[in-house]
Structure prediction request, 98 residues.
Amino acid sequence: MHAERRSEPREICFVEIMICRHMSALGFEPALMIDRSQNGARIVALQAMQPDEHFLLKTTESGLAVLVYRAMHCTELGDGRFSVGARFVRTVGEHEGG
Prediction:
């Protein structure tokens, strides 16, 4: 078995997401970020996303941060959840914890 080689370290954490087509509806919903780097992320979400669809990701790992991501691809996991590969777009807001 080959060790996975990545140019950037990866992280796993619980986050909240808001798919931009639903901004006026329910707000943020829970998701699991299973792979994150400086340029992108893979999340497990309760809703499917289309390529190029944007979503907000809220994390409280190191203070509060709201980030914009663009979905690149989405795969149904077969259990009512979806694996979404996304590209980081920009930071909307950030507040250091303390």
